[in-house]
């Protein structure tokens, strides 16, 4: 659990060029009853990761822009004057899992490229995307290009299977195709939208989104978690741990609601909180990742 600084402190520093808010160290073994994440022998994603996206429903431009910027940032390093960590630094931790796979997984670098975008603005499969409908959307996302991860991004008002029922972002394998599916949970599932939306199940101050659009930054946060899971546990037999055999924790779900260990910057213009910067200086708040080397939760800051 992470604690955040009250909003009045954010306002009092609003005119500072570089505002840093002190947070308590929040590193632990994750869920109390879970064993450390371990490798179960399955294949990992490596080399070139091709991504095909289907925008399902009325996706605002700000959300599409933020998600595409996040993808560009994974392999882009543009150092800042104040040495804020990069999105690529976060991605390096995801890539590091390959070194801990017993069988090895080839090159540790995972280059990510969006190879296709498709639009389904008319809610062709309704506003509840169960697994069967995700299956139908995968060829649209990938344009039937082999070895391409399908990303289904659903608009506000669309329920993605299991949202608010144990998982905020979906990833898995359908018909030998890997996929990630995310929605905008602002209204339906505030606990998935925290820390940008108040939730009765969360403790800590609600933060302002770095892009200025809550849905955009929430979906990037959820996508980051789903993508990390799709790389480190693509087929369900990679890196994970389970509790009593029925609840699986992966790279980011093992470290819920943790974003920084010491300090988190606040944009002096927008007041938005972030822990990494990316392509063209775009700011993001990305989730903590389980570090397989130290068996602890890790954040860029």
From TrEMBL:
<protein>
    <submittedName>
        <fullName>Protein EXORDIUM-like</fullName>
    </submittedName>
</protein>
<comment type="similarity">
    <text>Belongs to the EXORDIUM family.</text>
</comment>
<keyword id="KW-0964">Secreted</keyword>
<dbReference type="InterPro" id="IPR006766">
    <property type="entry name" value="EXORDIUM-like"/>
</dbReference>
<feature type="signal peptide">
    <location>
        <begin position="1"/>
        <end position="34"/>
    </location>
</feature>
<dbReference type="GO" id="GO:0048046">
    <property type="term" value="C:apoplast"/>
</dbReference>
<keyword id="KW-0052">Apoplast</keyword>
<keyword id="KW-0732">Signal</keyword>
<dbReference type="Pfam" id="PF04674">
    <property type="entry name" value="Phi_1"/>
</dbReference>
């Amino acid at each position: 659990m992470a604690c955040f600084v009250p909003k009045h402190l954010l306002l009092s520093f609003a005119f500072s060029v570089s505002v840093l808010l002190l947070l308590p160290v929040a590193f632990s073994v994750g869920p109390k009853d879970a064993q450390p994440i371990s490798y179960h022998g399955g294949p990992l994603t490596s080399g070139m990761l091709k991504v095909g996206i289907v925008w399902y429903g009325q996706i605002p431009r700000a959300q599409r822009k933020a998600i595409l910027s996040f993808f560009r940032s994974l392999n882009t390093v543009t150092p800042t004057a104040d040495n804020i960590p990069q999105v690529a630094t976060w991605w390096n931790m995801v890539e590091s899992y390959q070194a801990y796979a017993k069988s090895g997984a080839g090159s540790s670098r995972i280059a990510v490229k969006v190879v296709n975008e498709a639009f389904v603005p008319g809610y062709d499969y309704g506003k509840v995307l169960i697994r069967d409908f995700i299956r139908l959307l995968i060829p649209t996302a990938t344009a039937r290009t082999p070895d391409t991860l399908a990303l289904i991004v659903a608009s506000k008002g669309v329920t993605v299977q299991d949202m608010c029922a144990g998982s905020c972002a979906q990833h898995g394998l359908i018909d030998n195709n890997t996929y990630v599916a995310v929605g905008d949970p602002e209204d339906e599932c505030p606990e998935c939208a925290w820390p940008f939306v108040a939730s009765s199940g969360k403790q800590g101050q609600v933060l302002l989104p770095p892009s200025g659009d809550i849905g955009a930054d929430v979906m990037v946060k959820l996508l980051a978690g789903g993508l990390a899971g799709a790389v480190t546990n693509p087929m369900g037999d990679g890196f994970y741990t389970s509790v009593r055999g029925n609840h699986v924790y992966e790279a980011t779900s093992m470290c819920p609601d943790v974003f920084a260990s010491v300090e988190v910057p606040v944009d002096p213009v927008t007041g938005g909180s972030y822990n990494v910067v990316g392509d063209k200086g775009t700011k993001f708040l990305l989730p903590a990742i389980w570090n397989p080397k130290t068996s602890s939760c890790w954040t860029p800051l």
